[in-house]
Amino acid sequence: MKMIVYDAENQVLGRLSSVIAKELLKGESIVVVNSEKAVISGNPENIQQTYLKKIKKGSALHGPHFPKQPNDIFRRTVRGMLPWDRTTGRNAYRNLKVFVGIPEEFKDKERKQVKEADASKLKTKFMSLGSLSLAVGAKKRW
């Protein structure tokens, strides 16, 4: 099976995630590097409030448990675009690996970027996934 490596640096989170979700449903194995450098478009204060609401929802004992680390937030975003209630969606999700930074094994491999997800074309404010995760209380591990 072919493995596709995506570089999330300066890519819009939602647009990149939708492309990745479609590829996963086709049966591809996908690796995403530099997940902390993906961006979310919009007012940074509103983005922080939205994610803090998701994290504080429910209880610590029963959940729902929403991630704080950038690679886990990225995985959760892709998961939301897959048919999670069916086995095809769950099996596709298992073929996704997301990393903060670039691991040694993927440094020499060719990394793709999605042209439609380029954040340099944004005319609005935006926030990186790394700064969002620090704002919602993650400990910096990257």
Total helical elements: 5
Strand content: 5-15%
Low-confidence stretches: none
Shape: globular
CATH architecture: Alpha-Beta Complex
Percentage of residues assigned to helices = 25-40%
CATH topology: Ribosomal Protein L13p, Chain: A
CATH fourth-tier homologous superfamily: Ribosomal protein L13
Tell how many strands the DSSP assignment holds: 5
Q: Structural class, from helix and strand content?
A: alpha/beta
Give the H and E element order.
Answer: EHEEHHHEEH
Tell me the strand order in the biggest sheet: 1-2-4
**Mean pLDDT rating:** 94
Give your account of this protein's structure.
It contains 5 helices and 5 strands. The protein is of the alpha/beta class. It has one domain (3-135): Ribosomal Protein L13p, Chain: A, CATH 3.90.1180.10. The strands form 2 sheets. It has a 3-stranded parallel beta sheet with strand order 1-2-4. Strand 1 (3-7), helix 1 and strand 2 form a beta-alpha-beta unit. Helix 1 (13-25) crosses helix 3.
Please give a handful of descriptors for the protein shown.
142 residues; alpha/beta; Ribosomal Protein L13p, Chain: A; three-stranded parallel sheet; two-stranded antiparallel sheet; 5 strands; 13% strand
How would you summarize this macromolecular structure in one to three sentences?
The chain is α/β, with parallel strands linked by helices and 142 residues long.
